[in-house]
Amino acid sequence: MNTTKEKGFTLVEILAALTILGIVFVSFMTIFSQMNLFNTRTESKLETIHLAKKELNFWKENPMPLENNEKISVLKKDGVSSPGFIFYTYTRRDEPKYEYRVKYRVQSDLKPFTETSIILHRVQISIYQNGKEISETFGYVEDGAL
Q: What are phi and psi of 138, to 5 degrees?
């Protein structure tokens, strides 16, 4: 009696397994590239949010932050186009080059609790790159700060 033991895989089974593995591998590679793109966008968004918060702190800590400041290259003050607001538009000399727009509300939008309370004015800071808004934040500064 002559019996042959055939152990192992056939060529068709090996090719089918390689094809399935290739399809799975390609689908995972597209997911990883999308995750990388998403992480890059998130990182740049977080950078600009941090920059906007930093600029807001700069405005809160300095009573007249734009006067005699050598770090600012272009400054335009507009208090005419929109009544009740003063707009400041400027860029900084250091990198990265963004355009900052500050919207200062002249009248306080908060009601004071007592007559001796501090009067606060809303300041909105927007950061633009190539004419497109990339980040925005707001805060309050004390009366007489600007």
A: -145, 160
